[in-house]
Amino acid sequence: MKKINVFFVMLLCAGLLLACSQSAKNDSSEQCAADANAIPEGGEWLSMFDGKTLNGWRGYLRSEVPKGWLVEDGVITFNSSGTADMEGADLIYDKKFKNFIFEIEWKIGKAGNSGILYMAQELEGKPIYYSSPEYQLLDNENMPDAWQGVGGNRQAGAVYDMIPPVPQPVKPYDNWNKTKIVVYNKHVIHYLNDVQILDFYLGTPVWKALVDKSKFSPFSNDEEKVPEAYELMLNTGNEPGYIGLQDHGYGLAFRNIRIKELD
Questions:
Q1: Which is nearest to 48 in space by CA: 87, 119, 105, 113?
Q2: What does pTM read for this prediction?
């Protein structure tokens, strides 16, 4: 009987999360209706990487660039080999943004796992992902985390542990992928390889339901649960935040990084 109840609860949770994900994409509230057709073109593109240096970038909660981050052959790379400076080594661009279009190309190694954090705040003593949604970067084919979570919500392009990407156009490891993230008045859209894969609204009841069912919820049974992040995640988007690149200890590379601020 216990096994049946557990199975039923798992199905219920999966159904709720998938329903929330679909609602996040098709939210018909007044706020969503007002914002959906109002994303402007914005101003000029700002290059965030000159192809030669890490000018403009620094470590999360640091003034310097953490060990492991390098520029090689015109790309930003992270190599954890031989570095002892692994905790808190995420890289952030040293300017906050609120409404923007962000583009980046990325390549990840076999079984790799990383992420792009956006709307992040610097919180002493807390990791960057406590305050920031994560655009998941992953080798779906070889990284076991791709099949954890619910409905693919830990696969490449997902809002990590919250919203799965549909469709899933990621390329295999060691191939370049293109990401675009649009944030405007708390409306967030993810693109992967020029395909829109999800959209949602921060600060809505749907967003709260997604956070409630994620590893960031104080009710989570995930062994990596971080209940301290709950209120921070619920309030994401209320103020400008940083864009960050996660170290996570896997070989990866980034290039063609730019952003356009939206009025």
A1: 105
A2: 0.84
